[in-house]
Amino acid sequence: MPKVDGIEVLKIIRSTPHLADIPVIVLSHFSIEAEIHRSRILGISQYIIKPLTLKEFIKEVHQAVEPFVPCQA
């Protein structure tokens, strides 16, 4: 992103009351443990490392949003 990085965007989301509880998924080519840890501390739902297949991506997104999706009976 040209002006701010994903960590800054995540900080903004988490500090905005009506956005604070939405699931946030980080999609990155960085697999640096410190970045992943920092993101988790800030409250991400999932950290996905590229490259990955579409099937893997869908699985990861599903896992991230599953707690927020109402159960269908």
From TrEMBL:
Which biological process annotations from GO are given for this protein?
Answer: phosphorelay signal transduction system
Q: Which residues form the Response regulatory domain?
A: 1-65
Gene3D superfamilies tied to this protein: 3.40.50.2300
List, alphabetically, the PROSITE patterns matched. Answer: RESPONSE_REGULATORY
> Per its UniProt entry, which superkingdom is the organism in?
Bacteria
Q: What's the protein here called?
A: Response regulator
Q: Which organism is it from?
A: Noviherbaspirillum pedocola
